[in-house]
Amino acid sequence: MVQRESLSLLSNNRWRSRIEHVVSYIHLAIKQAVKSRCRYRFGAVIVKGGRPLAASSNIARNDPRIDYRHASVHAEEAAVRRVTVTRRAIIYVARVNIRGDLMIARPCARCQKVLALAGITWAHFTTSNGLETMRIGA
Predict the structure, then answer these.
(1) In Å, how far are 14, 58, 120 from 77, measured between CA atoms?
(2) Which of 42, 74, 100, 113 is the most exposed place for a label (fewest CB within 10 A)?
(3) pTM as predicted
(4) Locate the CMP/dCMP-type deaminase domain: which residues (predicted)?
(5) DSSP per residue over 96-112, as a string?
(6) pLDDT tens string for the chain (138 positions)?
(7) Rounded distance between C-alpha atoms, residue 32 and residue 92, angstroms
(8) CATH number of the domain where residue 108 is located
(9) Which domain holds residue 18?
(10) 49: alpha, beta or left, given left = phi > 0 and alpha = psi -120 to 50?
(11) For the packed helices 2-11 and 13-35, what is the interaxial angle rounded to 10 degrees?
């Protein structure tokens, strides 16, 4: 029964359009992740009203041997810093390994707090099996 319902949703043009948008924004986040020079390669894109507002990858800040807890600026934080209006925005986060395979990119507790304070309501992120969605601040 669930498969039939999901297939009927995909046949609906409105849902197909939404899914295509999610995939296109995740693709932008993957492009940002590939640009990262960090060991764990993350990328993030903030979207509001169907328009990308900011995109960033994680940025190396300190040598992990000196301060492993603050060794990088997370991609979500870097993207939030690049934009002024984030109320009711959506963030798309991707992580890739050295071979370019998708990995889990669920925002950490620190990033969830930053996103909630910025007013971002939803996060779509990659997993090794595809995509997942989470509500921020709920």
Answers:
(1) 31, 8, 12
(2) 100
(3) 0.84
(4) 20-138
(5) E-TT--EE--PPPHHHH
(6) 334 444 444 556 766 777 888 899 999 999 999 999 888 899 999 999 999 999 999 988 766 666 656 668 899 999 999 999 889 999 999 999 989 899 999 999 999 999 999 999 999 999 999 899 999 986
(7) 11
(8) 3.40.140.10
(9) 2-135
(10) left
(11) 90
- Alpha carbons 61 and 64: distance in angstroms, whole number: 9
Show the tokens assigned to 3.
Answer: 């498969």
Q: Which residues pair with 135 in a beta bridge?
A: 122
Bridge partners (DSSP) listed for residue 60: 72
Tokens 């009711």 appear where? 88
Q: Is the distance from CB of 122 to CB of 133 less than 8 angstroms?
A: yes
Render 38-98 in DSSP notation, one character per residue.
Answer: SSSEEEEEEEETTEEEEEEE-EE-S-TTT-GGGSEE-HHHHHHHT-S--TT-EEEEEEE-T
Smallest CA-to-CA distance from 26 within 136, 133, 121 is with 133
Q: Which two tokens stand for residue 61?
A: 């800040």
In this structure, which amino acid lies at residue 49?
Answer: G
